[in-house]
Amino acid sequence: MNVLSLFDGMSCGQIALERANIKIDNYYASEIDKYAIKITQKNYPNTIQLGDINNWKEWNLSRIDLLVGGSPCQGFSIAGQGLNFDDPRSKLFFEYVDILNYYKPKYFLLENVKMKKEWQNIITEYLGVEAILINSALVSAQSRKRLYWTNIGNIQQPEDKNIYLKDIIETGDVDRDKSYCIDANYWKGGNLKRYYDKSSRQLIIEKPHQSSKRLMVKIGNIYPGEGQNGNIYSTEGKSVTLKGEAGGLGAKTGLYSNDMITWRKLTPLECERLQTVPENYTEGVSNTQRYKMLGNGWTIDVIAHIFNYLPLEYKND
């Protein structure tokens, strides 16, 4: 099978094809992010990199059997500005359509975020197939609803693997069964408490030290870089006013807690597990870039589930 992957990123499509036991003759990748390309070539050195999708008319490729891609979603995302097809990144969808019409592959797959029905219908009209909504929560520890347009037939919903957030973290505690969807901005956490409140992204609860004796820990140390005189945040992220001396907490010049509670972001390894990416796959670049490419990437086991419906003729012996 000859595969053309647009917006290839760190080559999640290639991981999924391998996991679905699909035989690949040539894998062509269109990507411009140098860090994502570095990770792809580290793991799949035979990948044929094509560069910018806007130059696709210069590619002159041989037969393409499978076209895959997840065009940039910022225009459609609830977290975005709602520009939809007016967003220059989301306009790249039409490049996908042009390439699909030019190479006429036997099979195609397009992934994007859950969006307004009117915009979903436009994509459906261009591609000629209805979108399938799959939540990554069925195969992973995160809730991540995505739309998949494909002419691979008879796709059913994946079975629930019952994987929970507590199952994939390295240390600490959690306050929910499933993580929030990790996006490309997860690495921008900065002030963790503010990030938790405003972005609704997942943080992990750590209790690194507990003692039967009274441990005086200043509230300002709970969230590095932000003093919280008067408040401490519970495991649900809600503000709890501390009582005075009679309640065993409090001081004249600042509030203290009996045990130290800290929050942390998910580690890159934990994010790999959320996306069902092989562990340490993204090693070799900074953590910032690892978070970014994982947030931009696919949940591998969802894509592999879809590829499992390809005909047996494409399977390895």
User: What's the β-strand tally?
Assistant: 13
Strand order of the largest sheet: 3-2-1-4-5-7-6
What's the mean pLDDT score?
Answer: 80
Q: Approximately how much beta-strand content do the residues carry?
A: 15-25%
Span between N and C termini?
14 Å
Secondary structure class reads: alpha/beta
Highest-level CATH class of the largest domain: Alpha Beta
CATH architecture of the largest domain: 3-Layer(aba) Sandwich
- In CATH, the homologous superfamily of the largest domain goes by the name Vaccinia Virus protein VP39
Total count of helical runs of at least 4 residues: 9
Main pleated-sheet profile: 7 strands, mixed
What ranges have pLDDT less than 50 throughout 5 or more consecutive residues? 75-83, 209-259
The CATH topology of the largest domain: Rossmann fold
Question: Helicity, in percent?
Answer: 10-25%
Radius of gyration, in Å, reads 23 Å
Shape: globular
**H-E string:** EHEHEEHEHEEHHEEEEEEHHH
Descriptive report:
- It is built from 9 helices and 13 strands.
- With 317 residues, the chain is an alpha/beta fold.
- It folds into 2 domains: 2-160 and 297-314, 3-Layer(aba) Sandwich (Rossmann fold), CATH 3.40.50; 186-265, no CATH class.
- Helix 1 links the parallel strand 1 and strand 2.
- Helix 1 (12-19) packs across helix 9 (300-307).
- The protein is globular, with a radius of gyration of 23 Å.
- The relative contact order is 0.16.
- Mean pLDDT is 80; it is low at 75-83 and 209-259.
Gist of the model:
With 317 residues, this protein is α/β, with parallel strands linked by helices. It has helices spanning 12-19, 34-43, 93-103, 117-127, 165-168, 192-199, 268-274, 287-296, 300-307; strands spanning 2-6, 26-30, 48-49, 66-69, 107-113, 132-135, 145-150, 203-209, 217-218, 231-233, 239-241, 256-257, 260-265.
